[in-house]
Amino acid sequence: MILDNFRVDGRVAVVTGAGRGIGAAAALGLAEAGADVLIAARTADQLEDVAGKIRALGRRVVTVAADLSDLDAIAGLAETAAAELGRIDIVVNNVGGTAPNTFLTTSPGYLERAFHFNVATAHALTRAAVPHMLTAGGGSVVNISSMMGRTPGRGYLAYGTAKAALAHWTRLAATDLAPRIRVNAIAVGSVLTSALDVVASQPAIKETMETATPLRRLGEPWEIAAGIVYLSSPAGGYITGKVLEIDGGIEQPNLDLGLPDL
């Protein structure tokens, strides 16, 4: 009986950054739980690979290859999902990220771009999706934040600041959109996605990250997807305005990126 509450049958999800990694895992997890999905990313070939797996689960899927840093393009996903799939119930704001940088080479423009890519994109898509979600009776928004939004880490000033802003945007949006739309976030730890390919290929750095994590390993994309399904489903129906930490228990990343001292 309780497992039925993790189902999202008959619902429609929009997932950004869904060509690989956490976004792809989220799209597949939601499809396995019963949702039809619009998936968006920059690379069409990656989207088609994910779409094939979704179709194999018996779910409908729409792919949109676009530059998701373009606010008009990302907002347009809402209209496409509503037109092609009939409704919107779930939004997963996964697109984002910013490369590490030193303090003195983090220009104001670099900081603004980090905020744009990690926060403004989430706001643009959610704002466009809300009218459709209300028409469908309500829904759930899940934002992908990071442990770097709550812990210090050398070289992550722009990224960490943007993810901290996204976490608080989550709390504020949840207040504005309650009670019909729930808004939550996941603070992700070190997860084995393509973004960590360089780290995973260097045993010393990988070991440092694992040692800094109480569970002594890096996370897997499906583990984040499980949290997304939970927050999107009736099982998470009494949760809003919260940041779920899925990070292996890490409190201090303690990762030496090899950035020069001042």
UniProtKB/TrEMBL annotation:
It catalyses: a (3R)-hydroxyacyl-[ACP] + NADP(+) = a 3-oxoacyl-[ACP] + NADPH + H(+). InterPro entries: NAD(P)-bd_dom_sf, Sc_DH/Rdtase_CS, SDR, SDR_fam. It is found in: Secreted, Cell wall. SUPFAM superfamilies: NAD(P)-binding Rossmann-fold domains. Its main location: secreted. GO terms for biological process: monocarboxylic acid metabolic process. It comes from the Bacteria. Keywords: Cell wall, Oxidoreductase, Secreted. GO terms for molecular function: 3-oxoacyl-[acyl-carrier-protein] reductase (NADPH) activity. Belongs to the short-chain dehydrogenases/reductases (SDR) family. NCBIfam families: PRK07814.1 (NF005873). This is 3-oxoacyl-[acyl-carrier-protein] reductase MabA.
